[in-house]
Design brief:
By secondary structure, this protein is an alpha/beta fold. It has helices at residues 2-19, 23-34, 38-51, 71-84, 98-101, 104-111, 113-116, 132-148, 164-169, 192-197, 211-229, 250-267, 269-296, 298-312, 318-328; strands at residues 59-65, 89-94, 121-125, 153-159, 174-179, 200-203, 238-241. Strands 3-2-4-1-5-6-7 form a seven-stranded parallel β-sheet, with helices on both faces. The two termini are 42 Å apart. Bound molecules: guanosine-5'-diphosphate and magnesium ion (MG).
Length: 335
């Protein structure tokens, strides 16, 4: 009991430190959240619960696009502009490719070099080598912590390859895709799936000799989106050109982000979106837990592999194998 009281008062102290803007306390709390240790997770959850009433007030923006599109350069400049207007800006980078390519987080740090030295900015790369699921979970919780610490703008950078963009789109209010002018007239390798997540498409690098090409790319995106939007009644993404390097068009971008946010808030869609996100967050954590608990057993892990092999070879259907796994896990049918 005494131990409980002690950890409660420690949680309260940490929560107060975070709320008062103590960056070291914030960074430590994020590390706690990223920790796989059971006792750390319990402390992290207690802290999050304590801070929950102070979360939810930031404008959360996802920024995605192919590597090299200029996301980090854009965030550095946009972040500086926003700080100049009195905002406090937190930047979280989700990059599942970084553990493989090795250097991109370091690259990001230097590319956000100006923002990194600002007292009103907080930059946190995702833990290297973590699985996408892990990144997703800790990123959501990190957003909540940053909000409790008083950051009123949270920018989440993610690479538009793989599944991280869908995961990030599921934890932000507004999703921006950064595109670049193409050499030819094909859309710059941006997958349809990524376009469909976009609220705003920003064609970057509209500077030096590339302004014409950027305008042309913007036209192409408008056409492509017009066709895609036919099946989505309330979806009308905006397209604009900008130059992150020359700080041109960034105010227009921010105006569009705010407009989008206001439209969502006014219609009640923002609240709905966030409550859906919270519910699917719970589901994800529960599913991960279940799976981890099940696979944790040696016998279960063997069954899992055996059944997976049978599914691969076509000996069993995926549905039948999944039911068999559920039976082995002791899960009874509802009826
Ligand atoms: N010409 C031009 N180059 C840019 C602009 N923004 C970024 N870059 C360059 O594009 C490269 C990739 O930028 P980076 O921000 O790291 O892209 P990220 O991988 O999307 O984060 C770097 O060499 C940047 O200097 C821009 O607005 N104009
Ligand atoms: Mg980057």
């Amino acid at each position: 009991m005494q131990g409980d009281a002690k950890s409660r008062s420690e949680t309260n102290r940490t929560a107060e430190a975070i709320r008062s803007g103590d960056r070291v306390a914030l960074a430590r709390a994020i590390t706690l959240i990223e920790s796989a240790k059971r006792e750390d997770q319990a402390r992290a959850q207690a802290l999050l619960e304590r801070l929950l009433p102070h979360t939810g007030h930031a404008l959360r923006v996802g920024i995605s696009g192919v590597p090299g599109a200029g996301k980090s350069t854009l965030i550095d400049q946009l972040g500086l502009n926003l700080i100049g207007q009195g905002h406090k800006v937190a930047v979280l980078a989700v990059d599942p490719t970084s553990s493989r390519s090795g250097g991109s987080i370091l690259g990001d740090k230097t590319r956000m070099g100006r923002l990194a030295t600002e007292p009103s900015a907080f930059i946190r790369p995702s833990p290297a080598g973590d699985s996408l699921g892990g990144v997703t979970k800790t990123t959501r919780e990190t957003i909540a912590l940053a909000e409790a610490a008083g950051y009123d703008v949270v920018l989440v950078e993610t690479v538009g390859v793989g599944q991280s963009e869908t995961a990030v789109a599921n934890m932000v209010d507004v999703f921006v895709v950064v595109a670049i002018p193409g050499a030819g007239d094909e859309l710059q390798g941006i997958k349809r799936g990524l376009l469909e997540l976009a609220d705003i498409i920003a064609v970057n690098k509209a500077d030096s000799g590339q302004i014409e090409r950027a305008n042309r790319a913007a036209m192409e995106y408008r056409t492509a989106l017009h066709i895609l939007a036919a099946g989505h009644p309330n979806w009308e993404p905006q397209v604009l050109t900008l130059s992150a390097r020359e700080n041109k068009g960034l105010d227009e971008l921010w105006t569009k982000v705010k407009e989008r946010h206001e439209v969502l808030a006014a219609s009640g869609a923002l609240l709905e979106r966030r409550s859906d996100q919270a519910a699917s967050w719970m589901r994800e954590i529960f599913e991960q837990r279940l799976l981890a608990a099940f696979k944790g057993g040696k016998r279960a892990a063997r069954h899992f592999r055996e059944l997976e092999d049978k599914v691969r070879s076509g000996e069993m259907t995926p549905g039948a194998a999944a039911h068999e796994l559920a039976r082995l896990a002791g899960i009874k049918d509802a009826e």
